[in-house]
Write a structure and sequence with these properties.
Elements: H1 3-9, H2 16-33, H3 38-66, E1 69-70, E2 73-74, H4 80-83, H5 88-112, H6 115-132, H7 144-165, E3 171-176, E4 179-184, H8 186-213, H9 215-220, H10 226-255, H11 270-282, H12 291-313
Helix pairs in contact: 2-3, 2-7, 2-8, 2-12, 3-5, 3-6, 5-6, 6-7, 7-8, 8-10, 8-12, 10-11, 11-12
């Protein structure tokens, strides 16, 4: 497998959905908690990137294996494995290597932090695998938007903050005399969730836009996603509502002073986001309008990254 085929197999262009929340969480850690651990940053970055690439490769492998004839066209030829004539054994070996790297760096990160990172990491790994693999993958159910938004938005941002403040008492997990104790700083956990909510909305909408556009083809391939149950019209309404919630949340975290005041300038991006929402509302075509979900996520998250970074220096 050459590098071009590998990058297509792991869909490297989609990694912004995990890397940008990771960077944003890191900046929030520096701004709010005044702390940064370079080693933990590197360990989590490598583990996160490798696992994200692995799950995408698993998804392409699974879709290729389960592919069916759609309107006279062989779906397998639309998949990188078929179009690039990739060996299935090579693809499987690539997946195993990526998973081993992800797990290895995750274990190193755990040794540098605490058991909370291990538990959250294990649950995230399991969810990532079940998202694309198994008898009924989560991506083929009406749970895809929820799980992708929560784990790629909220959990990534939470962990990218927590690895720097693990010893601050925000979460304490203990075991003594056969009793497991858990202590949470509820206020800080809620604040982190609020900081992650725009990423949750943006990533959920990428999945939602994809499922709306693919509705007819997904039904043929027995993928019964959220739009199948709520319909395209309600799916588009939800697509719009999630962006509104995201911008209201940004105003809230600025008002609560858990984000720099300058972050309020990110609402200026709403005009372009609204234009993209209107484009998608008019027609839901994979080749033409799905990309607006990705553009909106990148625009919103990039604005936050830049403004929080400026807030740190101010």
């Amino acid at each position: 497998m050459n590098i071009t085929s590998f990058l297509k197999l792991v869909e490297i262009q989609t990694k912004v959905a995990s890397i940008m929340p990771f960077i944003l969480g890191t900046l929030y850690s520096i701004y709010r908690y005044k702390t940064f651990n370079l080693k933990n940053f590197i360990f989590m970055f490598v583990s996160l990137l490798c696992f994200d690439m692995a799950t995408t490769a698993i998804n392409n492998y699974y879709d290729y294996k389960k592919a069916t004839e759609v309107k006279g066209n062989d779906y397998r030829e639309k998949n990188v494995i078929g179009s690039d004539n990739l060996s299935l054994n090579t693809v499987k070996a690539t997946i195993v290597i990526l998973l081993l790297l992800a797990v290895s760096f995750g274990i190193i990160l755990t040794f540098n932090t605490d058991v909370v990172v291990l538990i959250i990491g294990m649950v995230s790994f399991l969810t990532g695998i079940l998202y694309t693999f198994g008898p009924i993958p989560l991506s083929r159910m009406p749970l895809g938007e929820l799980f992708s938004g929560f784990f790629m938005g909220v959990i990534i941002i939470f962990l990218s903050i927590y690895i720097h403040i693990y010893d601050s008492g925000i979460i304490t997990l203990g075991y003594e005399n056969n009793i497991i104790s858990l202590t949470l700083n509820i206020k800080e956990v809620i604040y982190i969730f609020l900081m992650a909510l725009p990423a949750f909305a943006g990533i959920s909408n990428i999945m939602l836009a994809n499922n709306i556009c693919d509705l007819e083809e997904d039904i043929v391939n027995r993928r019964f996603t959220l739009p199948y149950y709520i319909g395209k019209e309600n799916g588009v309404k939800l697509f719009r509502a999630l962006y509104y919630i995201a911008y209201l949340d940004i105003a809230l975290i600025v008002a609560l002073r858990i984000a720099p005041v300058i972050l309020i300038l990110s609402v200026l991006s709403f005009k372009k986001v609204k234009e993209n929402i209107d484009i998608f509302s008019k027609e839901q075509i994979k080749s033409k309008t799905f990309i607006v979900g990705v553009k909106n996520f990148v625009l919103m998250t990039l604005c936050q990254i830049v403004l929080v970074a400026v807030g740190i220096f101010i």
